[in-house]
Design goal:
mainly alpha
Length: 234
C-alpha cells in the first residue's frame, strides 16, 4: 500500500515546488521524482500479489508481464528525469537533454508514450480479473479507474489519484473479498493419523471454530505493498 501513497506524495511535492514559479532543476524536482521512482519499484511486489490472487493461466501471465513492462518503462522515465536535473543548470537545459534522449529510436514510444500507460492498463485488468474471481470487491476496479483517469486531466490531481488507487487496492492487502477457501481449510487427509485443520475439527465436532483461530488463518495470506508518470515528467 506504500506505492500509491508515494505517488500521492510525489504530487504534493510537485505542487509545493511549483508554488514559487520555478520547478526543476532543484531539490523539489529531485525529491518529487525520487518519491515517484520509489513508488514505481514498490508496485512490483503489489503486482505480483495481485497476480497470485488469480488462477494460473495465460491471462494472468500475460497481464502481469504487460504490467511489469509498464513499470520498467516508468522507472526509466523517472530515472532519466532525475539524471537530466542533475546535469542541467535550468529547465531549458533539462528539456534539451530530454529531447536528445527522446530522439533515440524507440525511446519516445517505449519510455514516454506507450510504456508507462501499459502499467495502468495492466493494473486495471488485474483488478477486474480479481473482482470477477471474487477476490476483490466490485467497486475496486471502478475506484481504480477514477484514480487512473484524473492525472491526464491535470497533474495537480496526482495526490487525489494516489489516494484513490490506495483505496482501490486496499482489499487486496486483506487477502481479497469472499476469497475461495484454500485446500488446507476444507480438504485434507481423512485417514488414520491425519491432522485436521481448525475448521475441519469444528465441523466434525458440530461446533464452530473460534473467531480468533479463523482470523489467524486469514492473516497468514501474503500482503501487497501497494500511479501515472506523464517527456520531461512534469
Amino acid at each position: 500500500m506504500t506505492a500509491p501513497l508515494l505517488l500521492a506524495a510525489y504530487g504534493v511535492v510537485r505542487i509545493i515546488g511549483k508554488s514559487d514559479g520555478v520547478y526543476g532543476p532543484g531539490w523539489d524536482w529531485q525529491a518529487a521524482h525520487l518519491l515517484a521512482l520509489a513508488g514505481v519499484f514498490l508496485f512490483v511486489p503489489g503486482v505480483l500479489h495481485l497476480g497470485r490472487l488469480l488462477p494460473r493461466g495465460p491471462w494472468r501471465t500475460g497481464t502481469v508481464a504487460v504490467t511489469m513492462f509498464g513499470l520498467a518503462a516508468s522507472a526509466v522515465q523517472f530515472s532519466a528525469d532525475i539524471w537530466f536535473a542533475l546535469r542541467a543548470d535550468d529547465k531549458a537545459g533539462m528539456q534539451a537533454l530530454s529531447g536528445d534522449f527522446g530522439d533515440i529510436p524507440g525511446v519516445d514510444l517505449v519510455v514516454y508514450q506507450v510504456g508507462p500507460q501499459l502499467f495502468f492498463v495492466g493494473l486495471l485488468t488485474l483488478t477486474i480479473l480479481a473482482a470477477r474471481a471474487g477476490r476483490m470487491p466490485w467497486w475496486s476496479p471502478v475506484v481504480l479507474l477514477a484514480g487512473i483517469v484524473l492525472p491526464p486531466v491535470t497533474l495537480d490531481l496526482l495526490p487525489l489519484s494516489g489516494l484513490l488507487i490506495t483505496a482501490a487496492l486496499w482489499p487486496a492487502t486483506r487477502g481479497g473479498r469472499a476469497a475461495a477457501p484454500t485446500g488446507g481449510d476444507v480438504e485434507g487427509p481423512t485417514g488414520r493419523g491425519a491432522t485436521a485443520t481448525p475448521l475441519r475439527r469444528a465441523a466434525f465436532s458440530g461446533g464452530t471454530a473460534p473467531a480468533s483461530r479463523i482470523q489467524g488463518l486469514a492473516d497468514n495470506r501474503p500482503e501487497v505493498y501497494a500511479g501515472p508518470p506523464p517527456r520531461v515528467t512534469p
